[in-house]
Amino acid sequence: MLDGKVAVVTGAGGGIGRASAIVLAANGAKVVVNDVGATVTGEGQDAGPAQRVVQEITQAHGAGRAVANSGSVASWEDAQRMVQDAIDNFGRIDMVVNNAGILRDRMFHYMSIEEWDAVIKVHLYGAFYVSRAAIPHFRKQESGSFVHITSTSGLIGSVGQVNYGAAKMGIAGLSRNIAMDMQRYKVRSNCIGPHAFSRMIETVPGQTEEQLKARAEKTRPDHIAQLIAFLGTDAAAGVSGQIFGVRGNEVYLYNQPRPIRIMARSDGWTPEKLAEHWLPAVKNSLTPLERTRDVYPWDPV
């Protein structure tokens, strides 16, 4: 379903990115495999992970189906080179998968400026940089697909991830507005909030070895990769501005914020009137401070 299409996948040296690059190639796409080769917290650089994924694709599908790129999504110049690698090697670009990310988990009252900046730069700036580098080509050819990886840390909430959650919620807004700006050019943009066992998930505290093993068996990166591949096909031409989730064999569509309770007073509101009339009326409709595990208490299929 992706014959003749070219994709750039960021953070493709492992986890969801690696699975996406492999599934895209298996469905006929040619792939720029990007990975800076850093640790989960963003330190270091190693071209090896991206090159190994290219070798996997080459062994499975023959030479010329993938090239490696070790640039950083947090660099505007590197983002432009990723897109140029697609043009130089394959003659076009049809899809961008913004998957690269790092973690710098810390409780909010201890979070440093550097921990905030590092995560926002890779996730939110990175998604913008690579998308912005690709859009002139998408606009000119009047086709293209962005798939951005958001997270339940932003959509629902998570303890100790203020920086990560803010970046991931920002990506949801970025995707929605790209979809609206680019609709006239037949360019689409969607988000996926994945549940998958990866090195990032391994860092989440409070999980036993048994829980990690069970999660690894039921929530694999290739589950998410199948939906990513679909969103790049012509069959998904009418799908844009949406937020999806994948958890094992479950695929779901998220609602997006809309008013659920509206009250008005002809004489206007005061703090006293809000306390006396408005709060009692909306109190039962307030969104509780739930974690992802509270919203998804059942085991994935």
Automatic annotation (TrEMBL):
Pfam families membership: adh_short
Residues covered by the Ketoreductase domain: 5-203
Domain of life: Bacteria
Family: Belongs to the short-chain dehydrogenases/reductases (SDR) family.
Protein name as catalogued: 3-hydroxyacyl-CoA dehydrogenase
Native organism: Rhodopila globiformis (Rhodopseudomonas globiformis)
